[in-house]
Amino acid sequence: MRTWLLSLAVLAFGGAASAQDAPPPGDPARGKALYMSTGCWQCHGTTGAGGGWQGPKLAPDVLAWDGFAAQTRYPASKMPPYRAKVLSDADLASIHAYLRSIPKGRTADQIGLLKQ
Ligand code: HEC
Fold first, then answer.
1. For residues 87 and 72, what is the distance between their CA atoms, to the nearest angstrom?
2. Is pLDDT of 6 > 50?
3. Closest of 29, 58, 61, 28 to residue 46, by C-alpha
4. Residue 62's closest CA among 38, 35, 88, 83?
5. In this structure, which residue's CA is closest to atom 41 in ligand 1?
6. Using CA atoms, how far apart are residues 68 and 96, in angstroms rounded to an integer?
7. Does residue 83 have its Cβ closer than 6 Å to ligand 1?
8. Cα torsion through 4, 6, 12, 17, rounded to 10
9. Pocket test for ligand 1, best of 44, 62, 77, 95 (most atoms within 8 A of CB)
10. What is the mean pLDDT of the chain?
11. Confidence (pLDDT) at 18
12. Using CA atoms, how far apart are residues 75 and 104, in angstroms rounded to an integer?
């Protein structure tokens, strides 16, 4: 009985840990729509570049899933919280996927006009 309970605990906590490391699968197109309808864009800009009302840049170089989800659920400071009741893990994962799909801008030496 004891061993059985112990392995159950290991399974439960081991499972929870790995579920947090990898983002749940998300759909970037749905994520973009949610990013707009939820209002993230108002503070973080429509492409996550920042420059909105007051949010920092989110993309490119998006936070890993753990930090991203923690900040959105329990923000560090002025950002309003989006708990699972108002934004499910699946929806948040799609927003994360949308932000990860935003390409990096070109560097100065990749822009022809700047080389002339
Ligand atoms: C009312 C403005 C506002 C809205 C709306 C908002 N944020 Fe934020 N966000 C902030 C501010 C301000 C910060 C800086 C940290 C803080 O105040 O908690 C931040 C920080 C973040 C960070 C951490 C960025 C980093 O590099 O540290 C993430 C991730 C984030 N927001 C995601 C989102 C998502 C996803 C949404 C929509 C579901 C959203 N935010 C909506 C204002 C906002």
1. 9
2. no
3. 58
4. 35
5. 40
6. 8
7. no
8. -150
9. 44
10. 85
11. 47
12. 25
Contact in structure between 107 and 56 (CB atoms under 8 Å) = no
pLDDT of residue 57: 95
The confidence band for 52, taking pLDDT boundaries of 50, 70 and 90, is low
Looking from the CA of residue 52, the nearest atom of ligand 1 is: 2
pLDDT, residue 16, reads 44
The closest residue, in CA terms, to atom 36 on ligand 1 is 40
Query: Given this model, what pLDDT does residue 67 score?
Result: 96
Q: Please calculate the CA angle 105-110-116 and round it to the nearest 5 degrees.
A: 130
- Work out whether the CA dihedral 49, 38, 55, 24 comes out positive or negative: negative
The Cβ of residue 35 has, within 10 Å, a number of other Cβ atoms equal to 23
Residue recorded with tokens 């840990």 = 17
Note the residue count of the chain: 116
Residues with Cβ within 8 Å of residue 41, at least 6 apart in sequence: 35, 52
